[in-house]
Amino acid sequence: MVLIPAGRFLMGSEEFYPEEGPVHEASVAAFEIDRAPVTNRDFALFVEATGYVTVAEKPLDPADFSGAELPDLRAGSLVFVPTAGPVNLADWRQWWAWRPGAFWREPLGEGSSVEDKLDHPVVQVAYADTLAYGDWAGVRLPTETEWEFAGRGGLEGARFAWGDEPQHPDQLKANSWQGRFPYLNTGANGWVGTSPVGSFDSNGYGLVDVTGNTWEWTSSKYNARHEAPTCSCGPVDDHARSADQNQRALKGGSHLCAPEYCLRYRPAARSAQSEDSSTTHIGFRCARSLG
């Protein structure tokens, strides 16, 4: 873990999406946070030690769905599937599909594997799964404020984790979508989908993958202080297992973020996610209080 000093900072942004505002002064006590997201290797050790069964591995109860159309009630999760060509970007259902058998060890569905991706961030983890891992490891999720303070790496008010200038295709700073979303992705430094943690430069605190690669769970409940987000890389309420599920704030953006659709690989970016949801672009990193 990396020690993050106590401090005050301007949290949020008013440049991009309404849910990121208003900019306000926030403070954090000193804490520790993982240098990188939890990997498949890390999560495998946890499962082997405890026999834990993730949310995505549990059969669905039809009573928990409010009219959502699902192919069947087998255990599974949501998987990103590129489209054949340009589509209406207002309808995320065109590139997200329910895959029976999808879970953290087979994230793309039955027959897929993470054996060659042990150093990639674990995905297909719901909020309860992150809490169970934290209980086992003696750590916790960071709050949204802690996450943003750490993610900024000491750069007050900067747009990105590396400064104000956007990424250049020849010198990428984060794993984000390269090409035309959601049908053409040429890969970020060769990576289509997740990349091994630490494949891109660290921020000012030495943290890697704070933006891009995978969205990351925080312990904070999501509160849209302005109007609803204008776009979302991931699925929303109608695929939640319960209509009244709480939502938590995700931070950091993912490999699916594309400037023309979802410019959210920034420290101020945030997204709502129902606690019982898991997808191929959401992971987590852990924190620890001092004293």
From TrEMBL:
SUPFAM superfamilies with a match to the protein in the record: C-type lectin-like
Single Gene Ontology MF annotation: formylglycine-generating oxidase activity
Residue stretches making up the Sulfatase-modifying factor enzyme-like domain: 1-288
Pfam families in the record: FGE-sulfatase
Protein name, entry field: Formylglycine-generating enzyme family protein
Organism: Cryobacterium tagatosivorans
